[in-house]
Specification:
- The protein has one domain.
- It is an alpha+beta fold.
- It has a four-stranded antiparallel sheet with strand order 1-2-7-3.
- The chain is 24% helix and 9% strand.
């Protein structure tokens, strides 16, 4: 493993070039975004202890058939988002990354990233940060319409209360919670009492290490590993699919949930305004266990 952040990033950038086929232009934009952050990467190399190596993850992939990407998405490691009751993969208008950014199987999630940086990194690849209902649909196996999933016009706390009260409760892997199926068995660093670059390692698993932790649409690791940023629109104009941005929302459980279940983590549960603020704020929240994944519109409204 690289022993400093700069070397860690270089390995990741080369993996992105080789496995995602990123253009020189996209990589140049990506490098520039990372260069403005002191911490953004795959965890502090001096303290992070990953519970599984890349090689061990690749061995899992060699033995187990994983969900393939959808060619319709036009980008590696993406699958279509749709409602199977009314649509099909062939008519889907949206895709989502199968893995946490950098969206490479058996690589480690990027953390210590703010929501505005996550949006910029998605845009560098012609994508965007997912709206909350899109992430939820990718997890639960059915994409709802915004009209179904938001109480536009209400205050944020009321919107979240109404959504949580009436939501379908399920996990990506099924209707019964089982943390052992996902990347939830790691531990916090011994002295990590408050979020700290020096004391809190990003002790994640490689993405896709748990073949059963996948939704019916083919999205991995929406429980465990890194929690994830996304866009929360409070009015329709703030939907990412309409070119807007709203407030930041964080979803998914993280890598210690077998030891400490910090909150509910079913697919459609929304957090009660944690670290509330605008998605594109320069002082947006970041943490050692917080990452993201991207969505991509297949056609513009």
């Amino acid at each position: 493993m690289p022993d400093n952040l700069a070397a860690q990033r270089e390995v990741m950038f080369e993996n992105m070039r080789a496995q995602l086929g990123l253009s020189d232009e996209a990589l140049t934009k990506t490098r520039a975004i990372f260069s403005h952050s002191r911490w953004m990467g795959q965890g502090n190399p001096k303290i992070t202890v990953h519970p599984m190596t890349r090689a061990e993850c690749l061995a899992v992939h060699a033995k187990q058939e994983f969900r393939p990407e959808d060619e319709r998405c036009g980008a590696p490691n993406m699958v279509a988002l749709f409602d199977p009751a009314t649509e099909s993969r062939d008519t889907a208008k949206l895709c989502i990354d199968q893995y946490e950014y950098p969206n490479i199987a058996c690589d480690y999630p990027v953390t210590w990233v703010k929501s505005n940086e996550a949006q910029e990194l998605c845009q560098a690849q012609g994508k965007r940060l997912c709206d909350a209902h899109e992430w939820e649909g990718g997890c639960a196996g059915a994409l709802h319409t915004p009209e179904q999933d938001y109480a536009f016009g209400q205050r944020r706390l009321m919107q979240e209360y109404l959504h949580n009260k009436s939501r379908e409760v399920r996990w990506a892997y099924g209707a019964t919670k089982n943390h052992a199926l996902c990347a939830t068995g790691s531990r916090k660093s011994p002295k990590c009492y408050e979020p700290s670059w020096e004391l809190c390692g990003t002790n994640t698993y490689p993405a896709g290490s748990f073949p059963e932790c996948v939704s019916s649409l083919g999205v991995y690791d929406q429980h465990g590993n890194a929690a994830e940023h996304m866009n929360l629109p409070l009015v329709a104009e703030e939907l990412g699919s309409r070119g807007g941005t709203g407030e930041n929302e964080m979803k998914g459980s993280w890598f210690i949930f077998q030891q400490y279940e910090a909150h509910e983590d079913d697919c459609r549960w929304r957090a009660p305004s944690w670290h509330e603020g605008k998605l594109m704020a320069d002082d947006a929240h970041r943490n050692y266990h917080l990452g993201f994944r991207c969505c991509k519109d297949l056609s513009q409204p």
